[in-house]
Amino acid sequence: MYVARASGLHQLHPLTKVLTALCLLIAGLTLPGNWTSYCITLLIVFPLSAWGKVFPNLLHIVWIVSLPFAISVLLIQSLFWGAGTPIFEFWLFAPKVEGARYALISLGKIILVMSSFLLFSLTTRPDALMIALKQAGMPSSIAYIIVTTLQIVPSFQRKGATILDAQRSRGLETEGNLWVRARALVPIVLPLALGSLMEVEERAIAIEARAFNSHKAETSLIEIPDTQFQKNFRTVTLVAMPLLMIFGILWRL
Amino acid sequence: MAFINIQNLTYQYPTSKAPVLKNINLQIEQGEFVAIVGPNGAGKSTLCYALSGFVPHFFKGELSGSIEVAGRQSSQSTLSEWVLNVGLAFQNPFNQISGAKYTVFEEVAFGLENMGVPRTEMQVRVEAALQLTGIADLAQRSPYSLSGGQQQRVALTSILVMRPKLLVLDEPTSQLDPIGAREVFNTIRNMAKDGTTIVLVEHKVEWIANFADRVVALKAGQVLLEGKPSEALTSDLLAEQGFGLSRYTSTAREAKKQGLWKKDTLPVTLDEAVEGFKQ
Ligand SMILES: Nc1ncnc2c1ncn2[C@@H]1O[C@H](COP(=O)(O)OP(=O)(O)OP(=O)(O)O)[C@@H](O)[C@H]1O
Ligand SMILES: [Mg+2]
Question: What's this model's pTM, rounded to 2 decimal places?
């Protein structure tokens, strides 16, 4: 997912970015106020992504992913909201203002989660993250799993597209009404799932063959610059996160 | 004492009902380039896994007999020690990309990082390995942006940069074009000359005839035949047993029946066939 750019955000230590993203996310989800998550997204995450020169990329992905979600949540919540003020009435349908409001609030949280995750994953090289996690004392196997999981999403997309093309060339209809598309999903998702099960074994063999489990002290090809300021900043975020959570819980009591 | 010594090796995967390798005996000298041939399901990949320690350390299952490489018994060693001596590259290049690296250069360095090689030495070794396999121009590309053939070369480079004493290659050129395959075979040949022992599974017998020192023919988990490529690959036995052999061999065999092929030995490669038919 990483997008190479020359920016200050790109040059920050990976853990600084992970912790910042986590902190923003927790703040958005726990601080009081229904629209806090929107505020944090618009006032902090988006500007930061602009500093990292990845704002268009971030917006694009958020838009693609959240649009179908937004539509369905809006429809469901507003149509099936019990009592409330109807926006308009049409036959059996009477969407309620309260339902739509609730949908928008939940949507804001989803958008915050996505954009803070993207903020760091678009600007952080996976290998740099892996090295940083290991240097912070995380076992290499866990660091590896985290980092490759981040990579799997794009590789799944690519493979999905390949399988889609293959199935289309065999005459599978993938365009048309909802039913046709739903049916088309089976021959696409199935090979993807089965394939990745068998892949896991081969992947494990491949990294083992490259001495992944050798118990030697590892070295790293690239150096990850860090500063005292960032170290202090990370300590602050580490303290802030539990405090935010406690505050959020107490507020709701 | 041979560099590789396999004695009475019988092996069965945990889920298979019968042994997949049956009483295999095989000795290979240091610096030898041995090719393994056999029909699908013969046990070629399983033998590769046995040499590289994954059978039985990774796959478990029942193993009897012994596997010795460079004076060490596989059963007495852990997998993580074993892989430092024995390198394995296999067919599907996509699954061999670590997924944790951003450029080909770093991908190739992954094994060295795990081995704890110091940074400056690592840089030198990665560069040399990329030169050796002819992919220096791909160094800064993302491994995911490459073609299957290019990825296959990256997978091979990533293993040989670790300088194993034994290099086990399971169909490492399946996605390469003939020019790429020739380059890779030349590289492997030169490594054998420098003392690396090579065990290679390969379907394209013409490459074997040109590059390998010896052929081991496997069928149904047993060694059917072994010998010099020019003899083994033209033997009647392998032809009768349905091994995928060179079309030049079968053409000449037919021609011989009709008296059109005068030589005693049958050809494997196009050049040998042309030369023979000229006579
Ligand atoms: N992980 C496994 N678990 C159980 N059985 C296996 C496993 N891998 C292979 N086998 C079985 O072992 C036998 C030999 O398989 P192997 O992959 O070694 O053959 P091969 O000679 O490499 O074939 P191919 O030319 O298709 O690559 C086959 O019958 C196969 O079904
Ligand atoms: Mg095989």
Answer: 0.82
